[in-house]
Design a protein that fits this description.
The complex is a heterodimer of chains A (112) and B (114). Helices cover 0% and strands 54% of the residues of chain A. Chain A contains no helices and eleven strands. The mean pLDDT of chain A is 94. By secondary structure, chain B is an all-beta fold. Chain B contains no helices and eleven strands. In chain B, the strands form two sheets. In chain B, strands 2, 4, 5, 6, 9, 10 and 11 form a seven-stranded mixed β-sheet that branches. Chain B has a four-stranded antiparallel β-sheet with strand order 1-3-8-7, with no helix packed on it. The chains are: A mainly beta (112), B mainly beta (114).
Chain lengths: 112, 114
């Protein structure tokens, strides 16, 4: 039972263009959503988050959009840089419950 | 400021054996969570420890057990290893009993079961 889905295993984008990573979830009880980035041989690192009471959160080049009715969120990276090449995990949780559920990840390649 | 450290980095075991993985949380953190990441999948929550007690548990069998020590470090034990237990095991630390959005992950222990 995969509660957090990332249907694109990989994505390639030219440097300077926008990267859009998508995520869908099934559990309507989730009230907080996060994105983590993972480089090879390293653990995931927190990137950006959004509460279910918001529909957008921005942090520099990274913006997360949340569409609760569609149970969908997306991460936009503008402009994309080669250093952004990594695996991106979408994650979700019920803040009263603490357990963070991760999606399978999308591998982003930013081509110089 | 030391981050989350895990040991060993790599481990090879055979079916039926037992394994212990270790984790030291980020300085100042008191909560440790363990995740299993199989190849091509996202991290799957195993359990979380706070104040030396297991607080949350994911859908893992009792073969997976853990412990947290007074210094907040933690161990993950897996008994009767199966081939399917081969995965990257990640430890994440955070602060406090309540919700904390920022999990700090270690680099993981790569376990291979032959």
């Amino acid at each position: 039972d995969q509660q957090v889905k990332q249907n694109s295993p990989s994505l390639s984008v030219q440097e300077g263009r926008i990267s859009i990573l998508n995520c869908d979830y099934t559990n309507s009880m989730f009230d907080y959503f996060l994105w983590y980035k993972k480089y090879p041989a390293e653990g995931p690192t927190f990137l950006i988050s959004i509460s279910s009471i918001k529909d957008k959160n921005e942090d520099g080049r990274f913006t997360v959009f949340l569409n609760k009715s569609a149970k969908h969120l997306s991460l936009h990276i503008v402009p994309s840089q080669p250093g952004d090449s990594a695996v991106y995990f979408c994650a979700a949780t019920q803040t009263s419950y603490d357990k963070v559920i991760f999606g399978p990840g999308t591998s982003l390649s930013v081509i110089p | 400021d030391a981050g989350v450290t895990q040991s060993p980095t790599h481990l090879i075991k055979t079916r039926g054996q037992q394994v212990t993985l270790r984790c030291s949380p980020k300085s100042g953190h008191d909560t440790v969570s363990w995740y299993q990441q199989a190849l091509g999948q996202g991290p799957q929550f195993i359990f979380q420890y706070y104040e030396e007690e297991e607080r949350q548990r994911g859908n893992f069998p009792d073969r997976f057990s853990g412990h947290q020590f007074p210094n907040y470090s933690s161990e993950l034990n897996v008994n009767a290893l199966l081939l399917g237990d081969s995965a990257l095991y990640l430890c994440a630390s955070s602060l406090g009993q309540g919700w904390n959005e920022k999990l700090f992950f270690g680099s993981g222990t790569q376990l291979s079961v032959l």
